[in-house]
Automatic annotation (TrEMBL):
Matching InterPro entries: MdtP/NodT-like (IPR010131), OMP_efflux (IPR003423)
PROSITE patterns: PROKAR_LIPOPROTEIN
Pfam annotation, one family: OEP
GO molecular function, one term: efflux transmembrane transporter activity
Signal peptide: 1-30
Gene for this chain: cusC
Protein name: Cation efflux system protein CusC
Organism, scientific name: Pararobbsia alpina
Length: 495
């Protein structure tokens, strides 16, 4: 047997030895002791409304739900907010950051190639491993003790994902990215509903000021009439002061309402992210008529309609992938490193054939005595996942509660509004009677004007109810997800 065949036989024996040793290595890996079990997802029966909660018609909000109010100024304000609001910019930046994390994790499972170049001016120790090279004996090829070493070439590395650890980490990063996208939709819904609430808060206050101005005109005439009578000695001064007190109370309400409009505008300006002159003028318009709607059933469709719930579902999915990655860490990892280039102690010899260097380094890493850390990592991943599941379950219950409470409040407001309209009709009958008597000369103008005050007061109460209904209608839209639709839906599959 020649030397070449003997070397070939030794290589085959070494390969067979490695294959035979692999089961022993796998059995010597750290053991999983703290896997745990996933918490249960919320039951479908808990994702629905009580039978006594219903509104005029069934339906989910449209994507641009605010256009149903048919107000071009509101449309423009919401579009401006969705484009420029600081919170939107923050949310989109978080999405970009999550996508960068995905790309970073992906690179860990791909082939890495780098170009190397190094120049090393070194003094060789006479007592070290390279001690003979510290001598200066040119005849022997030793020109020490100073050398200028050069290395030029390419290095490569590849992690072989045998157990899916890298795939699980990539999936977890993608889950976080999807969660951030859903959170961006949730921020958009929050901003659009806040803008609508502020806008109609301003419009309601405009109408309140109109009613207060009407009441103020009557109060001014009342004061003047009582002052005339008091001056002629026909009545006591007390009536003048009572009328003046009523006038001042109305003026105070007007001042308060005007200040409220300014506060609403400043809140909207901060929300939109506009400068001192960046918010367009908001002119008074009539409040829109409402067509409140609730879906016939919520069930799992609510989960796909709420962006905040979808974000939490994606975080839960990502937590399952982190568990898979934590489990895969218990098994051996395998990588391959390689180098091709030139290495020489003298720069003059660097690019010669004899200075070529090739390295091929397969590596196997076994976590044998690392079970404590790995089990703690797995336990932490499992408990973190269970915490997210419970937070998700609670968020679902809160979402159902929001829909139920808002729907119930709208039902009550609708009934209150109808009763208030009937009350105004009754009080208006008395006002009309006094007005008719005044037209016939049977009573004074003061009495006719004062008969209008109770009607105006009840109109203010009706306006308050209408404003509350509009606010609750917007809140219901938000509770139903504002037209958001997850596509495709995310499924919770605990592992």
């Amino acid at each position: 047997m020649n030397a070449r065949s003997g070397l070939r036989d030794w290589r085959w024996r070494r390969c067979l030895l490695c294959v035979a040793w692999m089961p022993l290595a796998l059995s010597g890996c750290a053991l999983i002791h703290h896997n745990g079990t996933p918490n249960a997802e919320i039951a479908p029966a808990q994702i629905d409304l009580a039978n006594d909660i219903h509104l005029a018609r069934d339906g989910w909000p449209a994507a641009r739900w605010w256009t149903r109010y048919r107000d071009a100024r509101l449309d423009a304000l919401i579009d401006q907010a969705l484009a420029d609001a600081p919170t939107i910019v923050i949310a989109r930046t978080r999405v970009a950051q999550a996508m960068s994390d995905v790309e970073l994790v992906k690179t860990g499972s791909s082939l890495q190639v780098v170009a190397l170049g190094m120049l090393d001016r070194e003094h060789v120790s006479a007592h070290g491993f390279l001690g003979p090279f510290a001598k200066d004996e040119p005849a022997l090829g030793l020109t020490g003790p100073w050398y200028t070493e050069g290395i030029v070439g390419f290095g490569a590395s590849l992690n072989v994902d045998l157990w899916g650890k890298q795939r699980a980490q990539i999936a977890a990063s993608l889950g976080v990215n999807n969660a951030r996208l859903a959170e961006t939709s949730a921020v958009e819904l929050e901003i659009s509903t806040d803008v609508a609430q502020l806008y109609y808060g301003i419009q309601t206050t405009y109408q309140l000021i109109n009613l207060l101005n009407e009441s103020h005109e009557i109060a001014v005439f009342t004061v003047q009439a009582h002052e005339g009578r008091s001056a002629r000695g026909l009545e006591a001064r007390t009536l003048v002061e009572e009328a003046r007190a009523q006038q001042l109370a109305i003026e105070r309400q007007i001042v308060s309402a005007q200040a409220q409009i300014k506060q609403f505008r400043e809140s909207m300006r901060a929300l939109v992210g506009a400068g001192p002159d960046g918010l367009p003028a908001i002119e008074p318009v009539a409040l829109p008529s409402l067509q409140e709607a609730l879906p016939a059933t919520l069930s799992y469709e609510l989960l796909a309609r709420r962006p905040d719930l979808q974000a939490m579902r994606w975080y839960v999915e990502a937590s399952f992938d982190r568990i898979d990655a934590a489990k895969a860490a218990f098994y051996p990892s395998f990588d391959i490193k390689a180098f091709f280039g030139f290495n020489a102690l003298h720069l003059a010899d660097l690019f010669t054939h004899a200075s070529q260097q090739i390295n091929l380094i397969p590596g196997l890493y076994l976590p044998i005595f690392d079970g404590g850390r790995l089990n703690a990592n797995l336990s932490g991943a499992r408990e973190g996942s269970n915490l997210l599941i419970e937070q998700y379950n609670q968020a679902v219950l809160n979402a159902v509660r929001d829909v139920a409470q808002t729907g119930t409040r709208l039902q009550a407001l609708d009934a209150e509004t109808e009763l208030q309209k009937q009350r105004i009709e009754s009080i208006a009958f008395a006002r009309d009677s006094v007005e008719a008597s005044y037209q016939r000369g049977l009573t004074s103008r003061l009495a006719a004007l004062e008969a209008r005050q109770p009607v105006i007061a009840e109109q203010v109460a009706l306006l308050t109810l209408n404003g509350q209904m509009l606010s609750q209608d917007i809140a219901l839209t938000k509770a139903l997800g504002g037209g958001y639709r997850a596509d495709p839906p995310v499924e919770l599959k605990p592992r």
